[in-house]
Amino acid sequence: MNDKLSELRKKAMNLPLNPGVYIMKNKSREIIYIGKAKVLKNRVSQYFGSQNNHSTKVRKMVDKVDDFDYILTDSEFEALVLECSLIKQHMPKYNILLKDDKGYSYVKITKGPWGKISACFRKDDDNAVYLGPFTSGYSMRATVEETNKIYKLYTCNRKFPRDLGKGRPCLNYFIGQCCAPCRGKITPEEYEENLRDAVEFLKGGQGQQVKRLRELMEEYSENLEFEKAAKIRDRINSMEKIYSDKQKVVSSLIKHQDVFAIVSAEEKACLHILRFNKGVLYDSEDFIFDAEDDLPSVRYELIMNFYSLGREVPPRITVDGEVESDEILSQWLSEKAGRKVVIGTVQKGEQASLMAMCRKNAAEKLAQYLGRKGKETNALDELKTLLGLPKIPEYIESYDISHTAGSDNVAGMVVFRNGLPYKKAYKRFSIKGFSGQDDYGSMREVLDRRFARYADETETDEGFKALPDLILLDGGEGQVNAVKPVLEKYGLDIPLFGMVKDGKHKTRAITANGSEISITSKRQAFTLVSNLQEEVHRYAITYHKKKHTASALETRLTGIEGIGKKKADLLIKHFKTVKAIASADEETLAQIKGISRENARKIYEFFRED
């Protein structure tokens, strides 16, 4: 805890009600954070008030603050310009900083009779030929990949002519994407010609190369060299197919825009950006940073920093949520670009599909960084958006009740952590508060017992000490309403929803506050919730069957003279099954502590008569 907090708050309360920039410093007088404010006094004093409302990152920053300075400006716009300039100069530790470390990209063409085309990030003194530099690594890598496919150049690690005729061709040969020098399927002269054409294609682009190839195809046809003409025809078709497929996947009706999406998990977040020009995706970038709860502020910082790195500003920036000071930021970007720049969100249509693709890529990149599977991360992100949750539900608890006509009431609690079952935290409950059938009362009792264990300071069980990010109940609105008072009783603000099934016992929707949210259109979120509902049902019913079997056995045993519930429980605990008890002789039965020889005789005779 910062022992200067009250002193800093007192200083902040004396700040003017003007726009400006504030500069936080540590004990060594190093600048650790720079921000702008429309009203300095209001913004800065918030840092030094109650720490409960701050994110973990802000609390850590405030704990390091020893003093702060400020600079007054005439407007919030001037404050933004100054903030941007100061951040670039000082690179403060607690600002979100996008490090532009991708540099330039090159196309490398190795010399020799079996040359190779590849992508690289720097020139080496290796006597190779380089094309570039290119600012878009994404676009350059895609172009190299397409060129190698069109001209069937080898991309494996074999060395030629050393490996000519050695080994089996790889898959690329069998799918028509490699000329297979390893099997002698092409002469050095033919390969050299393909390589020259590929380099010309890279230099001149598709349009110019197709035009030249059409002229060559017609020339071969006129000279009756139909085999050569057919090869040229196939190459033209390959070019047009690859270009057409690329257009289908990454086209946009808005010709010039950047699409921003943020996905967070495990205190980390990933910003992914898709960049479109002339309606075609020409670049993509991603950045990993520490996650924060205040997403509008985060988006503001990310957009400001991204275009401060010297990137071209498009007419439209599409984001996945609210942006703090969006009008001021739009004004700054418009002045930077020399034309109007719009910052906006999307709801439906093609733009929504592009945003979904952007979020999916962000989830995949973040999953790779965290060492997790992308589909789980993406499913959790879909669920967060669908339910309007404040953060990704990394820890989900789900509950279901099981009984037979009101007898042997039990409940199961399953836990999914990071989208996968976390069986270590599963819990089983026997309903104790009443007998008979009351699903609402059963669910209320189970949640009450679960959170009573959480509130117990002496509790050490991991499954009870963790608080979930989301609770899903197997049932509708009635189940949700039955449990809400329990959460209020313990002062817990945990998102609570019910899982609704259709007539075939399959997940149909999620319910809360009297309405239903259909999840069938969100494939990955739907799969996740369906898996949760099936797993909690399986876990609860398995426990119920076990208890029901034990109850039936207990009832049968208590019908034996001299055997009450306590002795029946001893027998069940030792033998587990009716068959094992019935097969035991008197001596084995009498060896159980609490079972007399007379009891053993009665049991033995009962099963022999039976």
Summary, kept brief:
The chain is of the alpha+beta class and 610 residues long. The chain has helices spanning 5-13, 40-47, 56-64, 76-90, 137-150, 171-174, 188-222, 226-250, 295-308, 326-337, 349-370, 374-387, 439-455, 462-465, 477-489, 523-557, 565-575, 578-583, 586-590, 597-609, and strands spanning 20-25, 31-37, 67-72, 105-109, 117-120, 129-134, 257-265, 268-277, 280-290, 316-318, 342-344, 395-404, 407-417, 420-421, 427-430, 470-474, 496-501, 507-512, 515-518.
- CATH names the topology of the largest domain as Nucleotidyltransferase, domain 5
The geometry reads as flat
Question: What is the terminal separation in angstroms?
Answer: 74 Å
Overall mean pLDDT stands at 84
CATH superfamily of the largest domain: UvrC, RNAse H endonuclease domain
Return Rg in Å. Answer: 34 Å
Beta-strand fraction estimate: 15-25%
CATH architecture of the largest domain: 2-Layer Sandwich
The domain count comes to 5
DSSP summary, beta strand count:
19
Proportion of residues in helical segments: 40-55%
- Which structural class do the helices and strands define? alpha+beta
Note down, in words, how this protein is organized:
47% of the residues lie in helices and 19% in strands. It is α+β, with helices and mostly antiparallel strands. It folds into 5 domains: 5-90, GIY-YIG endonuclease (3-Layer(aba) Sandwich); 105-249, no CATH class; 257-371, Ribonuclease H-like superfamily/Ribonuclease H (Nucleotidyltransferase, domain 5), CATH 3.30.420.10; 395-548, UvrC, RNAse H endonuclease domain (Nucleotidyltransferase, domain 5, 2-Layer Sandwich), CATH 3.30.420.340; 558-609, 5' to 3' exonuclease, C-terminal subdomain (DNA polymerase, domain 1, Orthogonal Bundle). The longest helix is centred in the middle third of the chain and has 35 residues, at 188-222. It is flat and about 105 Å long.
